[in-house]
User: What shape does this take?
Amino acid sequence: MDEPPRKRMVRPPGGEGDGRAPAQRLKTAKQRTPSSQAWLKRQLNDPYVAEAKARGYRSRAAFKLIELDERLHLIGRGVRVIDLGSAPGGWIQVLLERGAGQVAGVDLLQMGALPPAQLLQGDFTDPGMGERLVALIGGAPDLILSDMAPNTTGHRETDHLRIVGLIETAADFAVRTLRPGGALVAKAFQGGETAEVIAQLKGSFAQVRTLKPKASRAESSEVFLAALGFRGR
Assistant: This one.
């Protein structure tokens, strides 16, 4: 698959004077809750959604990884990558386009095939799942990505604890399996009590950064922790 230009999509598609169509309105709100109406309106007027459709990406999240890669140079040609929480596959598509070698992903949801990536349906936290993923890529990964997020309960403290638990699980997996010099990128949320896990990562990586890609919606508290330069076990 041809590698796309590396300097695209670092700002939202479109803009003033670009001839973009005006904001679309929902034709009907029948039988839709206010929250579903708001979600549909965002989808209709989100330039990343339109661009993802135009470029054949399975989700707008592809542009988050594109920007992270352009800023951090994560995806070298031939690298081994494990993608945690990979459905529907937008990040897998970007990895393959940008020259990743062996790629494996896992998610609770079923995903359509994206050869040559190897995709598993299951719970990453199940015993033995991490070892299965490492075996699929033929050895220690160069890069571990985690876009995992728990089902929310609506209780702020409980949701934060669940989010931090997933980050800690991904971080522990990275420290156990990454090759020296490797990297971990994991989704987090502002105010999610991540200071302790960041401190732990700083003990194992040369650099730890918190970034918010432009493709992350402004109203979202979503950020990404990037731990670079794994020092080894």
